[in-house]
Amino acid sequence: MPTSASTRGRPARAEIERQAAGALHAAGVRPTPQRVEIVAELMSEANDVTAQDLHSRLREGGSQLGLATVYRTLGLLADAGVIDSLAHEPAALCYRWCGSDHHHHFVCSRCHRVVELGDCRLEPWLDEVSSEHDVDVTGHRLEVVGLCSGCR
């Protein structure tokens, strides 16, 4: 008998779409069908994807979304903090669903595996930088690039 995705420990697509709609709503973003579809696809991806890769994957799954809609929606979602954008690809942003906890990313420069790095210890240093340079730090993002254990 075939095993469904939900019986292997992954939620069924309808559940992922429900979670996606909830995440959009929680971020104050109207959960349109297109936005839910894009966020749900990102929630199903372990690593990050470019807009073009995401568009191709959606189209292969039967979606009618255009590439311009995917780009616009990813930009809106990144600006709203619903998804993260990573700049490790030359001339292309990559996008990833991460959730809401503050974290940074390690990105393998060979296979593009992404690891979320929690336990941010930058705040004391940023407080010093703020005082030393008379600036107000309102946020920060850190992307660490290197080789994962599988690529070394």
Model description:
The chain is of the alpha+beta class. It has two domains: 98 residues, Winged helix-like DNA-binding domain superfamily/Winged helix DNA-binding domain (Arc Repressor Mutant, subunit A), CATH 1.10.10; 52 residues, Dna Ligase, domain 1, CATH 3.30.1490. 39% of the residues lie in helices and 17% in strands. The protein contains five helices and six strands, in the order ααβααββββαβ. The strands form two sheets. A three-stranded antiparallel sheet has the order 1-3-2. β4 and β5 form a beta hairpin. α1 packs across α2. The protein starts with 12 loop residues before the first helix and ends in a 6-residue tail after the last strand. The N terminus is likely disordered.
Which features does this protein show?
152 residues, disordered N terminus, 5 helices, 17% strand, Dna Ligase, domain 1, alpha+beta, three-stranded mixed sheet, single chain
CATH topology of the largest domain: Arc Repressor Mutant, subunit A
Q: What proportion of the residues form beta strands (DSSP E)?
A: 15-25%
Taking all residues together, what is the mean pLDDT? Answer: 85
Total strand segments: 6
Helix run count: 5
| Total number of domains | 2
How is the main sheet built? Answer: 3 strands, antiparallel
Relevant CATH superfamily of the largest domain: Winged helix-like DNA-binding domain superfamily/Winged helix DNA-binding domain
Proportion of helical residues: 25-40%
